[in-house]
């Protein structure tokens, strides 16, 4: 076996043995076994399941692996029994050389959850190596005049085994001239010497043949032999003698080539050429020593011939021979030991015992990510290594034992902030100057569904034209999720909600993949002007997270409704009861044409126009109020029957219109003509008094009814303030409380008297309730009808027609949208029945 390699293993084993001895007393997690070298494959070393308290189910289900620091897989695990078994041949000599202790550290790694156990296996030596000599033949020259007691060093045998199995003694074959002397050195090595017992006589026997046997202490013992031939020489009777029988020196491993290590010196008492000494390496000097060192044959200087490396060999031992030039040649021997002093010339290394695995972003602080160890080929302080991270990371290194660390989490992780960390580890030894090395480890962060989808807008506002075709995209919502994978896959849905007692999903449909919202039918502004839908965005994580957004849908009005004539009603026929005296002056109020438009805004602005008339010079129609008045005074020449065709047109595009026919009779009666109500009559007639009385009673009843209704609704709303039930004090589509404004207006202009009851809020359609009384009517009945919608005009008129005769006063009700704020008409110019009073 190579001496340098053996020495390196010896130092490595001694180093680990010291560390393991220290750790054995403090680390309860370490377990120690022993096994003889050369054990058969499958031999049981120990029971890991029992000694490490690991159940068989954990061993079989967990990902358990065995790792050795030298890279070879000497052991494996029997997953059925939990035993640590021998996996391949173990040669103690190749692992530890001549070291007295050979401990093989084994790392047991369990990956789920990540755990590390350290097991030490003591490799026991067996007597599997015999002592060996470098050569089987050895020749020794002895002068015949050599004095008894002279000693001659012999070749040292080497045994790869240690302890009791190592070399124990030498045995020399029996002879009468020589005996064997064994010298035991400080390190326990044994050196044989041949001792001359009596003077050899060349004339009697010029050559002696001996057998030297080396025996070890094994049981049974093993041995090796070499043959020694001794030649008896004549003449030169003094051999060179060294000043020291042993030389010891320390040399730094970074000493340059040519450095003089030491000088050996020998003295020969002879004179002349018999006293001239030549120095050389002993005949048994190893080739590695002769490659590293050279010796000056004249001076005895030993010089470096090649760089030294402590990590290859910590020391060199060899023999130096001094020979003279006499005949026969005489020689002397000395032993040289050169110890190599370690220099910090090896940077530390970072070794990943368990490669880092991706970690979830919700991992608890202290979660083990990777197992790390360090190594440094140097010795002493030069081989002591510390590891640190180059900068701040949400991780830290937790020391475990003997240059081993666990990389664990040290703070909360957030994949959305950092998806991967590149951690730079710096390993520094304790040498002078210290050496360092860097290693990078990448840690990927696994996503956890910890972010709900977020809409790009806090709310959405959509405008849709009424009567638009169903199936069109009316809006699109979008939400983003900072997570990844399925946790970021967003689907859209409409939450259950009511729109006029109908689910929102019956009005619109949403594409679950892209958030596009489609209409399921065309919308009618007059039935539904605005509604809200709640859209939910949900991810595909587990558990799923979601968020909601409100989409406000406004229906845009189109001019799809013609003005509806309330008075005069076509169901009543021509208004033959409209009579005026021939004494009527210019500006006399004959009647008023009233119409409403179910549309809103510009589409509901109406204008009145006299389309046809029996005598166009006699009557005129107010373009805004629809009032029919005389343009001039009535004369006797005017026809008694006058017919007017009034056209009512809205302001939509295209405009829609309706016509009303008004029949007027001119009377030649003896009774007093009806005065214009704008003139104060000091003596009202009896019917006018009755009408005024009924008006007062009606106003009082309406006022009382309004107060009672308001109080009831106020109490009801207070009781149900936490619900979405219908309330007169609430909007239908929101929970904002808005008080309604009530307005009573009495109009006494002209021969037609009527009362308007106006009500509404800012966000709903205004409602107008109007009662009209004719001064010619003899009925005192007062009918109050509230329409449910603007589409109930015909039904309402039918009710009125069934309850009133032709000459009775009529009831009008309309629903008029407030005009656009940009419209600049004054109060008397606004369209509809309420303008111009």
Write structural notes for this entry.
The chain is mostly beta strands and 837 residues long. It folds into 6 domains: 3-124, Cadherins (Immunoglobulin-like, Sandwich), CATH 2.60.40.60; 127-234, Sandwich (Immunoglobulin-like), CATH 2.60.40.60; 235-342, Immunoglobulin-like, CATH 2.60.40.60; 349-446, Immunoglobulin-like (Sandwich), CATH 2.60.40; 454-556, Sandwich (Immunoglobulin-like), CATH 2.60.40; 564-718 and 738-829, Cadherins (Immunoglobulin-like), CATH 2.60.40.60. It is built from 7 helices and 55 strands. It has a 4-stranded mixed sheet, with helices on one face. It has a 4-stranded mixed sheet with strand order 8-14-13-10, with no helix packed on it. The chain has a 4-stranded mixed sheet with strand order 16-23-22-19, with no helix packed on it. Strand 13 and strand 14 (223-233) form a beta hairpin. Residues 1-29, 572-576, 670-687 and 722-837 have low confidence and may be disordered.
Helix share, percent: 10-25%
CATH level-four homologous superfamily name of the largest domain = Cadherins
Structural class, from secondary structure content?
mainly beta
Overall pLDDT level: 78
Going by CATH, the architecture of the largest domain would be Sandwich
CATH topology of the largest domain: Immunoglobulin-like
Shape: rod-shaped
Oligomer: single chain
Strand arrangement, major sheet? 1-7-6-3
* The level-1 CATH class of the largest domain: Mainly Beta
By DSSP, the count of extended strands is: 55
* Radius of gyration based on Cα positions: 61 Å
pLDDT under 50 segments (min length 5)?
1-29, 572-576, 670-687, 722-837
Main beta sheet strand tally, sense and closure: 4 strands, mixed
Straight-line distance between termini: 127 Å
Count of helical regions: 7
Give the number of domains.
6
Approximately what portion of the residues adopt beta-strand conformation?
35-45%
């Amino acid at each position: 076996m190579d001496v340098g390699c053996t020495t390196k293993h010896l130092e490595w084993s001694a180093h680990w043995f010291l560390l393991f001895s220290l750790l054995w007393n403090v680390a309860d997690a370490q377990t120690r076994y022993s096994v003889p070298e050369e054990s058969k494959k499958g031999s049981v070393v120990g029971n890991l399941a029992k000694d490490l308290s690991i159940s068989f189910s954990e061993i079989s289900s967990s990902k358990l692996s065995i790792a050795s620091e030298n890279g070879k897989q000497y052991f494996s695990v029997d997953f059925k029994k939990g035993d640590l078994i021998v996996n391949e041949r173990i040669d103690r000599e190749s692992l530890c050389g001549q070291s007295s202790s050979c401990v093989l550290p084994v790392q047991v790694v369990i990956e789920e959850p990540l755990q590390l156990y350290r097991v030490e296996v003591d490799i026991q030596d067996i007597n599997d190596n015999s002592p060996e000599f470098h050569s089987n033949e050895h020749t020794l020259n002895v002068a015949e005049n050599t004095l008894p007691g002279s000693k001659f060093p012999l070749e040292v045998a080497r045994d790869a085994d240690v302890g009791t199995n190592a070399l124990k003694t030498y045995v020399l074959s029996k002879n009468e001239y020589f005996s064997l002397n064994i010298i035991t050195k400080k390190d326990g090595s044994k050196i044989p010497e041949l001792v001359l017992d009596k003077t050899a006589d060349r004339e009697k026997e010029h050559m002696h043949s001996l057998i030297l046997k080396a025996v070890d202490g094994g049981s049974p013992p093993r041995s090796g032999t070499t043959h020694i031939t001794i030649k008896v020489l004549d003449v030169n009777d003094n051999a060179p003698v060294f000043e020291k029988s042993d030389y010891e020196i320390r040399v730094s491993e970074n000493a340059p080539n040519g450095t003089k290590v030491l000088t050996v010196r020998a003295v020969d008492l002879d004179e002349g050429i018999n006293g001239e000494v030549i120095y050389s390496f002993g005949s048994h000097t190893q080739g590695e020593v002769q490659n590293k060192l050279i010796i000056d044959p004249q001076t005895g200087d030993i010089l470096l011939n090649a760089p030294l490396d402590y990590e290859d060999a910590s020391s060199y031992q060899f023999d130096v021979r001094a020979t003279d030039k006499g005949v026969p040649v005489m020689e002397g021997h000395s032993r040289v030991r050169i110890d190599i002093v370690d220099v910090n010339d090896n940077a530390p290394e970072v070794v990943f015992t368990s490669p880092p695995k991706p970690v979830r972003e919700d991992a608890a602080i202290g979660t083990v990510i990777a197992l790390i160890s360090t190594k440094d080929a140097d010795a002493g302080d030069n081989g002591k290594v510390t590891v640190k991270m180059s900068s701040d990371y949400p991780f830290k290194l937790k020391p475990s034992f003997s240059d081993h660390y666990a990389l664990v989490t040290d703070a909360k992780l957030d994949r959305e902030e950092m998806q991967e960390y590149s951690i730079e580890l710096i390993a520094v030894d304790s040498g002078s100057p210290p050496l360092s090395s860097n290693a990078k480890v990448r840690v990927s962060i696994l996503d956890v569904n910890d972010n709900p989808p977020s809409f790009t807008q806090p709310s959405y506002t959509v405008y849709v034209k009424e009567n638009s075709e169903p199936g069109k995209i009316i809006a699109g919502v979008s939400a983003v999720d900072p997570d990844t994978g399925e946790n970021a896959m967003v689907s859209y849905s409409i939450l259950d909600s009511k729109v006029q007692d109908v689910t929102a999903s019956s009005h619109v449909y949403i594409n679950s993949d892209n958030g596009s919202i489609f209409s399921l039918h065309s919308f009618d502004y007059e039935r539904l002007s605005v509604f809200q839908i709640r859209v939910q965005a949900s991810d595909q994580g587990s558990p799923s997270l979601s968020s909601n957004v409100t989409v406000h849908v406004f229906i845009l009005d189109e001019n799809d409704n013609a003005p509806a004539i309330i008075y005069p009603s076509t169901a009543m026929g021509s208004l033959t009861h409209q009579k005026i005296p021939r004494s009527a002056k210019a500006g006399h109020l004959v009647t008023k044409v009233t119409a409403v438009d179910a549309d809103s805004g510009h589409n509901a602005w109406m204008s009145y126009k006299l389309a046809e008339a029996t005598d166009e010079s006699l009557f005129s129609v107010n373009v805004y109020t629809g009032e029919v008045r005389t343009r001039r005074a009535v004369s006797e020449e005017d026809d008694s029957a006058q017919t007017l065709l009034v056209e009512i047109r809205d302001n939509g595009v295209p405009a829609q219109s309706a016509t009303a026919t008004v029949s007027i009779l001119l009377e030649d009666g003896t009774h007093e003509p009806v005065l214009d109500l704008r003139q104060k009559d000091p003596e009202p007639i009896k019917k006018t008094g009755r009408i005024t009385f009924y008006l007062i009673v009606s106003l009082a009843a309406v006022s009382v009814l309004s107060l009672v209704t308001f109080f009831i609704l106020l109490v009801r709303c207070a009781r149900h303030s936490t619900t979405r039930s219908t309330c007169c004090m609430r909007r239908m589509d929101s929970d904002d409380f808005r008080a309604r404004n009530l307005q009573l207006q009495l109009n006494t202009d002209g021969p037609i008297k009527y009362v308007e009851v106006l009500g509404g809020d800012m966000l709903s359609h205004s409602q107008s309730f109007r009662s009209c009384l004719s001064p010619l009517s003899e009925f005192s009945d007062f009918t109050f009808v509230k329409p449910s919608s603007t589409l109930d005009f015909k039904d309402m008129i039918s009710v009125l027609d069934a309850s009133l005769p032709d000459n009775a006063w009529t009831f009008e009700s309309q629903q008029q949208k407030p005009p656009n704020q940009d419209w600049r008409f004054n109060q008397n110019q606004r369209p509809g029945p309420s303008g111009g009073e």
